[in-house]
Hints:
The complex is a heterodimer. Chain A is built from 7 helices and 1 strand, in the order αβαααααα. Chain A is mainly α.
Amino acid sequence: MRWIVPVVDRTLRDVQDALTQIERWRTQVANGQTPTVTELKGCLNATDLNRIESNTRYISEYLRAYGYQINVITKVDWTDESLPNAADVNRIINNIKEIRNKYYEPAGMPSLPQTMVSFSDINAIEQSLLLFREMLLDMAGAFRRSGTFRCGQGMKFPMSTGITWFALEDLTWGDIEGESWERLMFYDLE
Amino acid sequence: MQSVSAGWKENQQKTVVSESFVEIQLGLTDPEAEESVVPIAIDVAPFSHPDQVVSREIRNITPYATLERNLWVLDGSKKILPTTNFVDTSYVGNVLSNSDCTFTSNPVVELTFPRVFNSYLPGLIIVWDMAHGDYAVDFKITLYKEGVKGSEKLVTGNDTIRTVVDMDIVEYDRIVIEILKWSSPRRRARIARIHLGQNITYGKGDLFGTFTHTQEVDPLSAKLPKMSLKFSVNNVDDSYNPYNQTGISKYLIERQEIQVRYGYRIGSDVEWIPGGTFYLSGWDAPQNGLYANFEARDILEFMNGIFMKGVYRPNGISLKALAEEVLLDAGLPERKDGLPPWKLHESLDDIYTVAPLPLVRHSECLQMIANAAGCAMYVDREGFLNIEPIGVFSSEAYFRISGTFHAGQSFVLPKSPDTNWVWVDYRVDDFNSYKRPEVALTKPLKQVDVSYYSFVVDAEVKEIYKGLFRLIREDGSFEPSITVQITYPNPAVETVATVSGGTLVNARYYTNSCELEITPDITLSNYAEVTIVGKELKTSEAIVTVLAGEQGETQSVKNKLITSQSRATAVGNLVKEYLKNRRIVSLDWRADPRLDALDRILVRNKFGVSPLLVTEFTISYNGAFKGKGRGRDVG
């Protein structure tokens, strides 16, 4: 599963802009035009929900690989015809709670919402996933191979952040050929 | 009395009140078509309620969040779909619009009717997706009569959520609404409401000469209440002339609903109060006149049918249950809020009668029930029919029992146990009266004689009714079945009908009548002979006398629903208490239209202020409100 860069900076302005833009498109349609209607930042669309679910699955798989008993249920095939209901919303929020409870609550993690109807609710969910991901990278980056340190040795924890072999083990050289070192350090590749 | 703001009340204290308003909304629809319409829609979303699309109930459509493109706006206004029990959604199609807002398969809503309606409707009002703001840009309305396509109207370029479609709708038993293009791509089509017909709103500028609103209520229900409306509107352009084929006259039907409201400019806004819910009862447009006249009545207009289902119940029935029987049988129009159009006071639950209701109009049945319960019956401005006790008391209520006060004690008079007059803020006095209130005295009351009734079932079974009913049509063919209502010459119980020349397939027996369904036996006769046998119900009458004074008139109360001595005594005491207030006061004043019949107000006379129970009044409007009314001085 691939990590997808989350959106964590939605604002009220985005919502207001969305409402204005939707109304503008409606007027164009009523005037006989066919505007190109894109997904707006102030709205939750199938792409957003799939990203949240996908990133949740990514984090949970990552943690399970490190031995954490994370139990989440995710659905990553939402379309614009889908009808997510209260059970789905609860499941998505409970997935975040499950990761937080079984793994760790990162510093600065926002309060989890009860529902998913405002921009701050969605920001909180995506921000939580982002913090989990950063913490996970820090943790993996701090791992030391056995035999590379000894009793009484002085060193600082965490030692580094960045990519681990675990994250790259599914990749071929072809996948990472041409990628920058920075990108490899902070974002893994499928 | 209607509740109003402090600003409204202050306005009434001014010598010249602020600008006033009257607004009348007339629904140009066919009430029968509206009540019988059944919507059909296939391929709907799982959370859709297509039946709600024609409901008269006013609903706030729930803005459920779905993943249709940009529909889930993150402003906190959307509701998460529950797993079950979806609330008000009305029609939601299942197919999403394409990127160009057309549909691969056009959403269709059909309005079906049980028969062909020949009444004219001026069109439709369609409220589209009021939850999310979408609407059909292009759509088509097609009429059908017995499967044959009639007229069609194609609307293109619509850009409003509430679309008024002008179209002569006549001779139809099916109306098909097909959505061709939606206002947003990748979204479901939604319709919140389809209103058959249109509304006309008359403001004060449209009124011409007459506008009167009358209320009459008897606190003892000795007569039927009446709330009526008369108004005239400008007809210079002959819009209401019945010979004008392009006019409005052809759309007018008895019992169309009329909503009235009254307003005053308070500050920069207009404050409105309900004026009443009426049903059109008549109209005319004089050929030599410049205006059209309308008359409307309250919901009692729907209760003129005879109630046939009175039943003798030796174990008794509460007056509330009895009233509900009558109200349900009356077939009253559905309210927009979905509530039953009546409010019955809980005290009716504890009053019983054994008597069968006689063969009288539904409204009279309810009047008898209210009278037997010692209640007033009236229709309020929201259109609810109310039966409830009204605190009626005589000046004796102000008497203090000896021993409950002493010399030098101070207290404020009057000390009425029922009403704290300090809080009555509606006054008719020199400031707002056109003339001083007139007073008439009724004759002194000597006594109230209340009859109460007991019933005895004859031991003998005898023939109650015998008659013939034709089973063939004029063309000689047999009716598949006939339903007959038979009224007995005398009340009877344990009745049984036998039919020769036909087969009795269904029978409902009441005390004064029965309803029989008969299928013909074509080998026997063209007529069915019905014989009904049973036991006659005999009535005997006794009288309770409640004394009121040494001399004067005797007031009789004869109500067959009063079947116990205790009830007769209670009713007699109530009548005495009310009628001992002998002063009938007539008013002519600058009316504040928040007044209702049965309100208690304060009226100034030459010697002070008296509390008045208003029993009837008429408010007229000609740029300003003016009232004439009467009531009983209860001070």
